[in-house]
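Working notes for the structural subgroup meeting. M.R. asked for a predicted model of this chain before we commit to crystallization trials. I am recording the input and output together here so anyone reviewing the notebook later can reproduce the run.

Input as submitted:
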Amino acid sequence: MTLRFKLFGAIGAILCVVLGVMVILTLVRERSRANRDRETERALLDFAAGLASPADLVAESALVSEGRLHPRIAALGIYDARPEETSAAPSRSWGALLRDAEVTDRAAEMVAEVWRTGRPIRRGWACAVPTIRPGAAPESPGSVQAVAYVELRASEEDEPARAGRVQFILVLCAGGLLMLTTWWIVERVVVARLRAISAGADRVAHGDYSRPVEESGRDDEIERVVRSFNGMMVEFAQLEGKLKEEAGEAIVRARQTQDSLVLAQRLAATGRLAAGIAHEVNNPLAGMLNAVHSLRTKEMTPERRAEYLALVEEGLLRIQATVAKILRFRPHKVAPRGLAVEEVVRPVLALAGHRIERQGVEAVVEGDGSAPVFGDPYELQQALLNVILNALDALEAADRRDQRISIRVDADDREVRITVTDNGTGMRDEDLSRAFDLFFTTKEPGKGTGLGLAMVHKIVTDHGGRIALRNADPGPGLEVSIALPRFSGAS
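Returned structure, recorded in token form:
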């Protein structure tokens, strides 16, 4: 409920209470006046009946003194002959019947009706009452002996009643005018200004500090609130600008740090493969050195020489292939494109092949390797390489005979999922939620940097995908699921 309705609801309630009290008082007064009117009517009828009775006419001196009526009686007349037989004039009359033709006509009309019906009648403060002949049946033709007409003056108590009604109407009009005036003042001075402040607060909530609340120039409490609000808006704008600037600088520093950490992790991953790379280079180098030494020191047939030269060429090609594998993981400019998943999986298995063979791990690739994704092949290869190396570390720590890594590719209309599962040591449930935190590692000191999965998470999310970890079911082991958007533009 708004402030305006609360205020006017209170005013309306008070006004209703006041008007209700006045209505009750007016009703009580009107009822009392009606009771008095009925009592006056009964007294008037009794008085008129007694006055029309021949036995009471001697009491006339109590009503008429020196030819003047009692102050409460306006007109008095006695009709003892039917109007048809006379000129309908009273046999005796006092007050207004002597001088007011309108009263005379009204009296003649009422008296004629009483002669005709035999029943008393009353109209306002005037009444005509019959006297029944002795032995005659009431309200029968010829039963009326005489008719008395009496008209009283209006009670002075009517004036307060009329004044009360006028007062009630005036109070009602004044209350309505008060409500309208108060409504206009509150709407103009309070509600409109509060509405402007509310609109300004909404703009601030949406980050718009360019439009302050318009000031009216008055010096009251509402305007002081408006000025304080506008000052607060300016301070908020300055603070937001400063925070945006500091946040931008912090983001730049964080990105630089993150890039440095990613590069460090790539170097660490390469270092973890250094022994295998050195082995793949040293073996052909040793064979080539022996062949060169033999070519230099021994006499041999052309066929033998050609055989040694072929060994040298084969060794050089093996070294070239090894160097090509390493170059795939060098820093480069990101160039995303549509590619099949097998373009990611195959080079990674080739680079980690020496360690896979050395540990005696069975590596299995299942699913549709032709499923298309959109991304940078080298970035995705780096992410998958870290996952494979972590799996090999877990298998080495588990020291199992039947070491196995499964790479399964599943695809639907929206995404392609690469799931890497090993039967190594797995992870504790409480560590799964922290696995992607920077510098978090479950390996022994000196064997893990805590950067691998953090880098994998960054690469996957940068490609619009997601990565999830869970312990293999059935265990032991760990399952890493990488989901990437399917590339709809690939054929």
